[in-house]
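Need residues for this backbone.
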């Protein structure tokens, strides 16, 4: 499938900001599930974008904007050809052995309830792949999607206790539970093409688990499915903080508001064929 993505992030400040520094994980890279046809990043301030790879092998752009400004807008857009591999990811840049992704973080700390849930959900399964699929299905059944229930710093255990959250929370809980089963798991950020192709207020998040003999496999507990050709994979890390699309700091600016305008749709050339 050929997908076209346009992702605009607008920051508005209550008073003029003097400067801002941002790190952007907004650029996908080629692997077996996708091929980048074209991609660009624009910032509406006079600044220099520098590109490098972060510790996990994700493509990272950084910039510093100086001067007095009330708004700051970052735009990324491009086309990506995607392939349905039943969630199996090969050819991605791997900086660390899978065992690193057993490491617990502040956002993926588990409690007794989560451990019991993970064990009960997977008790009848004998192999890691089946356990991960069972965990995904059980989590999808146990949790309710609610965009107002959490924020980006809500830990997995707290979200699980509430039973409500967004895709980021589903991914964190899945990752945390998989690790309690001694299965390496990581958080993935990216894009998802909805069937209606309507505008979205944020990107998407899911998880990947490592299966011996198969490699990394994606699991989206929000939709109870392994990623197919409706997904574009952008960044992977231990949790949201390592794969967040935009992180930064600023001097001045007072109160801050952020607006995201995102559209993921089939590219025009394909939709007319």
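Answer:
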């Amino acid at each position: 499938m050929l997908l076209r993505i346009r992702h605009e992030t607008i920051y508005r400040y209550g008073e003029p900001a003097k400067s801002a520094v941002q790190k952007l994980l907004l650029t996908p890279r080629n692997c077996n599930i996708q091929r980048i046809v074209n991609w660009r990043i624009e910032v509406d301030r006079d600044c220099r974008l520098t590109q490098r790879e972060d510790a996990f092998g994700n493509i990272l752009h950084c910039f510093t904007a100086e001067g007095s400004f009330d708004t700051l807008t970052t735009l990324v857009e491009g086309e990506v050809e995607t392939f349905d591999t039943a969630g199996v990811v090969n050819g991605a840049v791997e900086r660390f052995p899978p065992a690193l992704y057993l490491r617990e973080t502040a956002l993926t700390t588990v409690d007794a309830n989560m451990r019991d849930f993970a064990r009960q959900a997977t008790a009848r399964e004998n192999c890691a792949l089946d356990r991960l699929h069972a965990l995904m299905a059980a989590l999808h059944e146990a949790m309710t999607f609610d965009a107002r229930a959490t924020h980006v710093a809500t830990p997995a255990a707290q979200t699980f206790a509430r039973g409500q959250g967004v895709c980021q929370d589903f991914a964190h809980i899945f990752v945390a539970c998989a690790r309690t089963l001694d299965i390496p798991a990581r958080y993935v950020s990216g894009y998802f093409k909805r069937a209606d192709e309507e505008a979205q207020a944020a990107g998407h998040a899911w998880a990947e688990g490592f299966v011996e003999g198969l490699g990394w496999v994606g699991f989206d507990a929000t939709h109870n499915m392994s990623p197919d050709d409706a997904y574009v994979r952008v960044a992977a890390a231990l949790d949201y903080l390592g794969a967040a699309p935009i992180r930064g700091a600023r001097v001045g600016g007072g109160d801050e508001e952020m607006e995201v305008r995102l559209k993921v749709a089939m590219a025009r050339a394909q939709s007319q064929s």
